[in-house]
Amino acid sequence: MMVKTDISAQFPFKANYIEIYGSKMHYVDEGSGDPILFLHGNPTSSYLWRNIIPYLTTHGRAIALDLIGMGKSDKPDLEYRFFDHARYVEAFIEKMGLKNITFVIHDWGSALGFHYAMRHESNVKGLAFMEALLMPFPTWESFPARIREVFQAFRTPEVGWDMIVTKNVFVGELLPTGVVRKLSEAEMSYYREPFKNPKSRKPVWRWPNDIPIEGKPPDVVDAFVSHNAKLQESDLPKLLFHATPGVFIDASTVQWCQQNLKNLRAVDVGEGIHWVQEDNPHLIGSELANWYSSL
């Protein structure tokens, strides 16, 4: 079989919408069988999974959701806290009638996936994660050095708002630096589209302010501590994708996962920073399909 190396900017999937709490949420729904639910993080959308989804559609029903306020989903008047997103994701799962779910999760999507899975483990088949937020950061020194300074600025009142909401720094500057290759103008256009004006960027601003660092915010810290403890006890099949150097999943975090998580398979995807799906989607897709077919 010829190994694919090209990375397409196209998003050739039918747009589907479902109403959740009075707002439309957009999702991709391809293939049939047990659901494989893809959850993105900040500041991306289902577009992040475009080159990976085709690998799974012969194995199951690949569903890639745009979180509320992101991608093509509506932007209701919310605080866009972690728990707002969790509520919408859980309602989406219930309204769609999804059973025996395998989560494929990244960034904040990983925290949402872990949060759901560890409270509804009987409805989950497996967990595949990459560049995941696994646990609280007890100090700023424990936060990834590569992005520490910019995230300290993001969490500074007024400064962070100006950077993210007024100047669109997260989408326009941080995102492309988290990918090894250069994102094309077509790709950047897809990523910019949901956040064209300052009013639309509140969800992007909220996420870095909800990362549990130095005990704040306490409710998110508690949620992370809870689902991390349960994750360590869980026998669910787990697939970890890790890159070099990575950001949230660096070498020491890979080691922690291998020592503390049961039924774990780890896959090295080579050179990558944070949005590893943009650098090595074909390896991720093929390894996901192999792992999924063994569940």
Q: Based on the structure, what is the oligomeric state of the protein chains?
A: single chain
Radius of gyration: 18 Å
Instruction: Report the order of strands and helices.
Output: EEEHEHEHEHHHHHHEHEH
Strand content: 15-25%
Q: What do these coordinates show?
A:
- The chain has about 300 residues and is α/β, with parallel strands linked by helices.
- The two termini are about 25 Å apart.
- It has 11 helices and 8 strands.
- Strand 3, helix 1 (about 55) and strand 4 (about 60-65) form a beta-alpha-beta unit.
- Strands 1-2-4-3-5-6-7-8 form an 8-stranded mixed β-sheet, sandwiched between helices.
- Helix 2 (about 80-95) packs across helix 3, helix 3 (about 110-115) packs across helix 9 and helix 4 crosses helix 5.
Question: Which terms summarize this structure?
Answer:
single chain; 295 residues; alpha/beta; eight-stranded mixed sheet
What's the gist of this structure?
By secondary structure, the protein is α/β, with parallel strands linked by helices. Helix content is 38%, strand content 19%. It is globular.
